Amino acid sequence: MTAAPDLAGIAPVLDRLCPMYAILDAQGRVVHAGPTLVKLWPSDMAIGQTVFGLFNIRRPIFDGTMQGLLRLSGSKLHLSLRAPPHTDLKGVLVPLCGPQPDEGGRYAVLNLSFGISVQEAVRAFSLTGGDFAVTDPTVEMLYLIEAKSAAMEASRKLNQRLQGAKVAAEEQAFTDTLTGLKNRRALDAILTRLMDSEQDFALLHVDLDYFKTVNDSLGHAAGDHVLQAVAAAMVDETRSVDTVARTGGDEFVIILSGVTDPARVGEIAARLIARIERPVMFQGQTCRISASIGAALTCDYDVPRVPRLIEDADHALYAAKHRGRGCHVVYEPQAQADWSVGRNADSCPH
Predict the structure, then answer these.
(1) Residues forming beta bridges with residue 252, ordered by sequence position
(2) How confident is the model at residue 345 (pLDDT cuts 50, 70, 90)?
(3) What's the predicted TM-score (pTM) here?
(4) Quick check: 3 and 12 in contact, CB under 8 A?
(5) Which listed residue (25, 176, 209, 250) is catalytic?
(6) N or C: fewer beta carbons within 10 Å in the chain?
(7) Reduced to 3 states, what is the DSSP secondary structure of residue 337?
(8) Whole-angstrom Cα distance, residue 180 to residue 19?
(9) Structure-derived torsion over alpha carbons of residues 39, 40, 42, 46, reported in degrees to the nearest 10
């Protein structure tokens, strides 16, 4: 860029003091631009274009001429770049010499700043501290914003880690460590939620048959292996919306969400028993167990209550074991005195 001859001494001073400025002639053409302002222009822009072609002057309202613009001398101007990204700017126009460019001093200086758009401008135009006046507090403000952003990011990451640790701790607190199933604490919370939402479900109490024999004959390692295999089988045989929990040594509870048909419960229970009865191999030894299942359905009660539901499922489980194990019984309120006439009189295959 080459300044007009009579500006040769002024332009370097302005470049240093206010690097985002333009010197305009009487027709509003840019005859010189500060080094920071040049960075804002596309590569095909050159000295000689008018201020009106480079900027959209939004406020104050004027007649769109250079003379009209000079009448706004000293007033705050609200502008934006006409070229993308259309950055918002603030500015002030001051005649370089005399009030009118045709009264001795032919030029005017338009000094600009970013205002609140400075962060976006720094990113958009790759500006550095050297692109601002030495006395401009913008650089310090940007450092403060960057420091605040860094602190907030560090805080966010710390919160994420703490939240992750909290979730992990809660997950551990609700998980049976041996099988990975829900534990009794988790089961209680799920049952409470289901009751509060008045959702119907079937509750199956599962107790393993002949598990003590495996433990006594092959050891606890074999027993643990069998429990893990049983847990995996139960998860395989149920849906993702269902809940499988280990509530004791060889006791499990399954919640079948939305299931209200006793026949459907019987089919699922029979399938579970058949799956559990498959031999499990442990260190070359065959482990054989079975299961007894008692079930209760919330739809059988006018007002279902968790303690009563669990108690009745237990009654059904005892009835299943009384029939010879490897059986399932669905609790039937009207037949509780005589299980032989209940819904599942033929539920025991043995």
Answers:
(1) 206, 246
(2) very low
(3) 0.54
(4) no
(5) 250
(6) C
(7) coil
(8) 66
(9) -70
Domain ranges across the chain: 5-136, 138-173, 184-341
Q: State the average pLDDT over residues 235-260.
A: 95
One-letter amino acid of 53: G
What's the token pair of residue 311?
């108690």
Task: For residue range 270-303, list pLDDT tens digits in order.
Answer: 999 999 999 999 999 999 999 999 999 999 998 8
* Residue pair 291/253 in contact by the 8 Å Cβ criterion: no
| Residue 340 to residues 322, 326, 343, Cα–Cα distance (Å) | 11, 16, 8
Specify the length of the chain in residues: 350
> HSE of 94 in the Cβ direction (CA atoms, 13 Å)?
9
Res. 340 pLDDT band, cuts 50 70 90 = very low
CATH number of the structural domain 184-341: 3.30.70.270
For strands 243-246 and 251-257, give the pairing: antiparallel
250: annotated active-site residue? yes
Q: Any idea which architecture 5-136 has in CATH?
A: 2-Layer Sandwich (3.30)
State the residue for tokens 């007009």.
4
CA dihedral in degrees (39, 42, 46, 47; nearest 10)? -40
Return the SS3 of 250: coil
